[in-house]
Amino acid sequence: MTETRPWGSYTILEESDTHKVKRITVNPGQRLSYQMHHKRSEHWIVVAGTAEVTFNDEVHTLTYGQNIHLPVEAKHRMKNPSDKPLEFIEVQYGSYFGEDDIVRFDDDYER
Question: What pTM does this model have?
């Protein structure tokens, strides 16, 4: 199942009661909202491109094979600063994985 978003798309690779795994593509120059979750942690692994990750107001640059852990209630954002697509794997784990567990602090698309 693939969902299109204004910044790119994601495909759910696996979903269970204990975790959800997505492959996320961020288009060149785009970024996800600056957000947090009350019921889940996330782990991001870059599999193509360069990522600019904002994690609790600190910016980190990640490239192929690098990863970052985002605990419950950590503020986070993924940005693609390059002119090529960015792809990363997101592993969610916790007690709930619905899209309505997103608290947005800043969003380029006014959602």
Answer: 0.94
Sheet holding 76-79, edge to edge: 58-62, 51-55, 76-79, 34-36, 103-106
- Give me the CATH number covering residue 40: 2.60.120.10
Smallest CA-to-CA distance from 66 within 39, 52, 80, 45 is with: 45
Q: What is the CA radius of gyration of the chain?
A: 13
Domain total of the chain: 1
Residue linked to tokens 């947005």:
104
* Closest C-alpha among 35, 32, 40 to residue 104: 35
Domain with 9 in it: 2-106
- Could you tell me if 24 and 2 are in contact, meaning their C-beta atoms sit under 8 angstroms apart? no
Q: How far apart are CA 86 and CA 100, in angstroms?
A: 24
* Model pLDDT for residues 16-42, shown as the tens digit of each residue: 999 999 999 999 999 999 999 999 999
